[in-house]
Amino acid sequence: MTATLGTLWFNLSQSPLLWLAATLAAYQAGRMIQRACRGTPLANPVLIAVLLVAMLVVTTGTPYATYFAGAQFINFLLGPATVALAIPLARNLGRIRHSLPALGPALLVGSLTAIVSGVTIVSVLGGSRAVALSMAPKAATTPIAMAVSQQIGGGPPLTAALAIIGGITAAIIGDKLLRRLRIADWRSHGLAAGVAGSGIAAAQVAPRDETAAAFAALGLGLNGLTTALLVPLLATLWH
Question: Cβ neighbours of residue 122 under 8 Å, at least 6 residues apart?
């Protein structure tokens, strides 16, 4: 009986549709848990889905390549989902133009803080240069962060993991921190989510307000560009 179940599971695990369905089910479970917890940011659906899928993959001994054969369909949709953020961006061009004088300094300070803080944490904890370089572009959206990491000698897989963890962390604490500081402007919430938390935090704040969605998209794009320009320069100067 056990051998039969093992054979059945092996055959099922080779199907990309199984892991696609498992990933979607894990995210839906995360949303249900968050609703049951009255919407608390601590019950982040992405974090819950990552933990559930990781437990399933590890428990069943499934190679990552087998899992990703199914999950790649969701990965493909990240591009269109990011591009879709251009819709609220286009609808709020007037507010964006009005905020341009403050956007530049905020973006530059946010990007530099993310880069320098990451490298500093690794250095203080005794990490290697390769780990520090992997940490530097973590606040950019994952595809850009991985490309920058590879260019400067970091580890793209480690950078991807750090970018996802950083995005989840920003989604959990970002909104609560801004409210504690009595910052209610949706432009600030959106920009902070896009700069500090990339797509994960941007996706959390976008449904709440169209202005927040517009500034999250703006922060996401401009921070990716700023990080791609600053990190290689700083890596060259840092010996």
Answer: 128, 131, 132, 135
